[in-house]
Amino acid sequence: MVRGLPAMGRLVELTRARAEAALGSAPDAAHLAFEFEELRARAGRLRRDFAAAGELRTAFAEVFSALGFAPEETFGDRRALRIVPPGPRRTEGALRSLPPHRDSWGSNLAAQINWWAPVYRLEAANTLLLYPDYWSKPIANSTSRWSLEELYAARQRGEAYPRLPVAEEEPAAAALPCTIAPGDLLCFSGAQLHASALGSSGRTRISFETRTVSLPDLRAGRGAPNVDGHPGLAAYRWFTRLTDDAGLQSVIGEGGTDLPEGGRT
Question: Model's pTM, two decimal places?
Answer without folding.
Answer: 0.92
